[in-house]
Write a structure and sequence with these properties.
Number of domains of chain A: 1
Number of helices of chain A: 7
Oligomer: heterodimer
Shape of chain B: flat
Strand content of chain B: under 5%
Chain lengths: 223, 59
Amino acid sequence: MNRSFTTVSQSSTSALATNKVLRNTYMLLSLTLLFSGLTAGLSMFLNMPPMTYMISVIGGMVLAMFVLPRFAHSSAGIGIVFLITGLLGFGLGPMLTMYASLPNGGNIITLSLGGTGVIFLGLSAYALATRKDFSFMGGFLVVGFLLVLIAAIANIFLQIPAMSLAISSVVILIMSGFILYDTSRIIHGGEDNYVLATIGLYMTIFNIFISLLQILGIMGKDE
Amino acid sequence: MDWMQIVSALALGLFVVFLFPTAINMMKNSPKGSAADWQSVIVPMVIIILFIMFLIQLV
């Protein structure tokens, strides 16, 4: 009897902790997305040059890979998350300015933004509703992402639009897989740090948005 | 060749090098999924592909 009480108590404590991580992750994610939108707007207003995107992405990746893990368990981690997401948002400015100058640029940006929101919310709802463990996808997703990166390096020099389209499409599918994988990790207690969970989900949203912009931009030019 | 292309390629190359040990580790230690597990992933992925095709029609 006592043992079953202890088991029920332990499992409800674990569920509460998981819910807290999930709630904090979505709260921080919402705030960082808003902050990114603000810095992207600022970057557009300042008419930043195209190289801003490259510098911001490299800076954001360095901070996310080498600085954030050291501070993720302290309050400074939240500040670093805002620094990374603000920097990435600022880098988006020149790209958004370029797309906005296209004849149907406003439409492309709105559809990319809406499409990213639908994909993220749909997949998160799916992972939360089914409560399925998607940890089996981990190896497949990371190897797939590595292969896409190698293809992207090749296409920097080859500049083939069809390859660019294929890379963007595969990135969306891999990032969608990461949404399922990351959300499932939070639900099943595999990720108990909401700062790291937030940056993981933010990166998937960022990549889906950029890839959708590229796909819709290329397809929009064909019309 | 544009210096931005070279810097971008170098940055992505370094990212691949840093990600490689993680990929090997995850490949070795990830649990294996059953056919039913993979089916639960393939269905939402097909829906996403159809959704992107729908978005392309709207541009």
